[in-house]
Amino acid sequence: MKHNKLKLYGFNNLTKTISFNIYDICYTRTIEDRLKYIEYIDEQYNSERLTNILTEVTNIIGANVLNVAKQDYDPQGASVTLLISEEAVPIYVLDPSCNQGQLTPIRKNLVGHLDKSHVTVHTYPESHPDNNISTFRVDIDVSTCGTISPIKALDYLINSFDSDIITIDYRVRGYTRSVDGIKHFIDHNINSIQDYIDKDILKKYTSVDINLHHSNIFHSKLMIDKLDLNNYLFNITADDLSESERNEILDQLNREMVEIFYGMNLPSAR
């Protein structure tokens, strides 16, 4: 069936923004394990790998990379910013500060600037000396202007990380005009963010869905349903533990996930 495109007056000024947060939870039994876990996360999700992930996100949504700025931090963490465009920008128009993703030793510390479309990622490895649970958080924001939408990349983003807990916010802002002057505050149909997530992925999670259709604001939270303990142990396996230890660790992992999922601290059992 042929889809008749709406004729616009000028450029499509709608801004579509998705904020994607994932948490990876891990049991780290000792101080040494906690330090090694953070080192492992920093190595696995350094700025170079994150740049590759964001570049693929850009390809999935049909955009073009204009500029990349990335940085690894001490003691841990990394950030990447991509400036993107809906259409390819000719070389003679491209600002000299843009590297098109080609990072050289001379330009590797370029400061990122944001235009109508951008993609950013920040990582936050975290642990506490009084808690055997370590957490790795990734924040990704994709903001586009025009007909492209960042929501198309959700499956790829979820599969790119060990996503135990996922929080997704999607908002369409502004308006664009048709040639007859009518304002359009959204240019695509959406009932829920979860309509854009593969059903086989959704089956693995408990979810909460909040949608404010009149404001074009959509929110979803997902928490992994079944815990395979071996997926959450660092430097040990479930066979190394007694049954009571396994149950205690599962309780700790579940508590941590529930607190993050609902955004509140549970009363102490002590």
Quick take:
This protein has 270 residues and is of the alpha+beta class. 22% of the residues lie in helices and 31% in strands. The chain is built from five helices and ten strands, in the order E-H-H-E-E-E-E-H-E-E-E-H-E-E-H.
Oligomer: single chain
User: Mean pLDDT, as a whole number?
Assistant: 83
Number of strands: 10
Q: How large, in whole angstroms, is the Cα Rg?
A: 21 Å
Order of helices and strands: EHHEEEEHEEEHEEH
CATH topology: S-adenosylmethionine decarboxylase
Give me the secondary-structure category. alpha+beta
Low-confidence stretches: 104-115
Report the helical percentage. Answer: 10-25%
Number of helices: 5
CATH architecture call = 4-Layer Sandwich
Number of structural domains:
1
Q: Largest sheet, if any?
A: 8 strands, antiparallel
Strand percentage: 25-35%
Which of globular, elongated, flat, extended, rod-shaped describes the shape? globular
CATH H level, superfamily name: S-adenosylmethionine decarboxylase
N-end to C-end Cα span: 63 Å
CATH secondary-structure class: Alpha Beta
What would your notes on this structure say?
By secondary structure, the chain is α+β, with helices and mostly antiparallel strands. The chain has one domain: S-adenosylmethionine decarboxylase (4-Layer Sandwich). The protein is 22% helix and 31% strand. It contains five helices and ten strands. The strands form two sheets. An eight-stranded antiparallel beta sheet has the order 2-3-4-5-1-6-10-9. It has a two-stranded antiparallel ribbon with strand order 7-8. A hairpin with a 4-residue loop joins strand 9 and strand 10. The radius of gyration is 21 Å and the shape is globular. The N and C termini lie far apart (63 Å). About 4% of the residues have low confidence.
